[in-house]
TrEMBL record:
Highest classification ranks of the organism: Bacteria, Pseudomonadati, Pseudomonadota, Gammaproteobacteria, Pseudomonadales
Alphabetized InterPro entries for the sequence: NAD(P)-bd_dom_sf, Sc_DH/Rdtase_CS, SDR_fam
This protein's UniProt keywords: Oxidoreductase
Species whose genome carries this gene: Ectopseudomonas toyotomiensis
Protein name: Uncharacterized protein
Pfam families: adh_short (PF00106)
Length: 264
């Protein structure tokens, strides 16, 4: 039986493949125990066995479909009650392709449930648990389409804009609590999500597609540096700072008692 990690346990959603599985491997390498959540129990078991053997950490699997409220509540309960959990990787998500007017709205609703509702409930549970003891981290996986919604599907882009906004607001609410927040906004990353969404990533220029290991390593480096928002492919952090500064300039004029003169 493994001794409890001094880092605590990292709960990773969508952990059976792609970004989630890579986060699990990198965190095991750092010495975190793991609680892996995904639908595919067989894949989870194989990953857990490999990481436990390779890194000598304790790895538990929790098969769950986070489009199911009952399963979300099961994971949420564990997040609220387990004092060993010190890090949440809110990674589970799906994408879809095509215009909204022609969309399968059942599929769109399932995506909102996973990308928005489940992520929110788990972030809230982690925030309550971690802030009560003055430590911990919440990493929410978004996408660069939060900043460039015209590039991709309307509903997917909107869910990722929500992830960014939620993370920024929650960081303000938890300021001084000892809990660290991070929104990760990857560009196109080589994972199964594209094939599942019906998007042919091979049609994109290779220069746009980042390997998943490089993306996760960059994201964790950003977390180590204390970044609230990490864009792994952005060469100059000053460009993000300028974006934030430009938004701040709008602040004093976003709410007045009278409409702007151009509307009269």
């Amino acid at each position: 039986m493994n001794a409890q990690s001094t880092f605590g346990t990292a709960l990773v959603t969508g952990a059976s493949s792609g970004i989630g599985a890579t986060y699990a491997e990198r965190l095991a390498r750092r010495g975190y125990d793991l609680l892996l959540v995904a639908r595919d129990a067989q894949r989870l078991d194989a990953l857990a066995k490999r990481l436990g053997t390779e890194y000598g950490v304790a790895v538990e699997v929790m098969p769950a479909d986070l489009t199911s409220k009952a399963d979300v509540l099961k994971v949420e309960k564990r997040l609220r009650e387990d004092s060993n959990i010190a890090l949440l990787i809110n990674n589970a998500g799906i994408a879809m392709n095509g215009p909204l007017a022609a969309a399968d709205l059942e599929q769109a609703e399932a995506m909102i449930q996973l990308n928005v509702v489940a992520l929110t409930r788990l972030a809230a549970a982690a925030a309550a648990n971690f802030s009560a003891v003055g430590r911990g981290g919440i990493i929410n996986l978004g996408s660069v389409v939060a900043l460039a919604p015209e590039m991709f599907n309307a509903v997917y882009s909107a869910t990722k804009a929500y992830v960014l906004s939620l993370t920024q607001t929650l960081a303000g609410e938890l300021r001084g609590s000892g809990v660290q927040l991070q929104a990760v906004l990857p560009g196109v990353t080589r994972t199964e999500i594209w094939e599942r969404s019906g998007t042919d990533a091979s049609a994109l220029p290779p220069s746009m597609i980042m390997e998943v290991g490089e993306m996760v390593d960059a994201a964790l480096a950003g977390f180590d540096q204390g970044e609230l928002v990490t864009i792994p492919s952005l060469p100059d952090a000053a460009d993000w700072d300028a974006f934030v500064a430009a938004r701040a300039v709008l602040g004093p004029n976003l709410s007045h008692s009278q409409a702007a003169a151009r509307y009269k």
